Amino acid sequence: MGWLPAPAKPVAQPVCLAGLEFPNRIGLAAGFDKDGVAVDGLGRLGFGFIEVGTVTPRPQHGNPRQPRIVRLSGSGALINRLGFPSVGAPAVAARLRRLRYPGIVGVNIGKNAATPNARAVDDYLMCFDALHAHADYIAVNVSSPNTPHLRELQRIEQLKSILEPLLEARSRIRKADSRPLPFFVKISPDLVPSDLAGVADVIRALGLEGVIATNTTLRRPNGDQFSGDASGGLSGRPLLQLSLTAVRSLRAALPRQAVIIGCGGVQSADDALQMRDAGADLIQVYSGLIFRGPKLIRELSKAL
């Protein structure tokens, strides 16, 4: 901790959403701290919330292909094909148990690559059982492009088959734990309008607290390519317009109390304001922190 500055002073008023009080509206997206090793340090940079993960129930190495992250500096973009490397839910839970960070901590959960979709719900439930006591909210990741067939879980019936048992599990633990523990489903920017409408229908029907829009994209919006293998999920500046489109569609389809976390391509105050105007209640960054550094967090928090 000696290498880090004192915790950043607040530059925004807290905001209450989904039963939680967020110190500010700027969060760190999942994928940066997959195993919960740096939450206390990252929290000193001024984030209002930090999302750990994606966490899988059992340890896995992720995709073996190298390089697993490609930097496209001219486009302010990254391509990643990590594939959920994870130390596993029990190990992450042990780390989260020792946290001192006072902000909101979300935990993003997913399935192991070897688990077929027909049994995916078992993996999500295992993660929930191991991690719920150490999370302020749970993000259900059904949208990473780097785990084979995972995105099929965004189809309405499959999505319901994941979310309904999770909500039932939360109802059971609430008999002893009265915390809100909201659920957010994390979706792909590559969904067509009818798919977005279907996701909104599921959120409304189940009373889910909200949605994270969006994950990385398989598209190459600006023709961004890499001289080697360009497969994987693209994040950063080229993703912004896709994410804004998804946020606008969801805001129009969801009740006001449903929380939308806008994620994808935010690298400036203007980007954050666009995301807010599109309907996002909270904003997450990942690639923006890589390209702009910690000063971005305070800049965004002041802008909102």
Please tell me about this protein's structure.
This protein is an alpha/beta fold. It has one domain (15-303): Alpha-Beta Barrel (TIM Barrel), CATH 3.20.20.70. Helices cover 32% and strands 19% of the residues. It contains nine helices and 13 strands. Strands 3-4-7-8-9-10-12-13 form an eight-stranded parallel beta barrel, surrounded by four helices. Helix 3 packs parallel to helix 4 and helix 5 crosses helix 6 (240-253). The model has no long low-confidence stretch (mean pLDDT 89).
Question: Helix and strand layout, with pairings?
Answer:
Layout lengths: L14 E3 L2 E3 L3 E3 L10 H5 L5 E7 L13 E4 L4 E4 L8 H8 L7 E6 L10 H12 L5 E5 L14 H18 L9 E5 L5 H14 L3 E4 L19 E4 L3 H14 L5 E5 L5 H10 L3 E4 L1 H6 L2 H9 L1
Parallel strand pairs: 3-4, 3-13, 4-7, 7-8, 8-9, 9-10, 10-12, 12-13
Antiparallel strand pairs: 1-2, 5-6, 6-11
Helix pairs in contact: 2-3, 3-4, 4-5, 5-6, 6-7, 7-9
CATH class: Alpha Beta
Q: Could you name the CATH homologous superfamily?
A: Aldolase class I
At CATH level 3, the topology is TIM Barrel
CATH architecture assignment? Alpha-Beta Barrel
Discrete helix count: 9
Fraction in beta strands? 15-25%
Total beta strands: 13
Write down the Rg. 18 Å
How does the overall form come out from the CA principal axes?
Answer: globular
Order of helices and strands: EEEHEEEHEHEHEHEEHEHEHH
Helix content: 25-40%
**Strands ordered across the widest β-sheet:** 3-4-7-8-9-10-12-13
Question: What key phrases describe this protein's structure?
Answer:
eight-stranded parallel beta barrel; three-stranded antiparallel β-sheet; 304 residues; 13 strands; globular
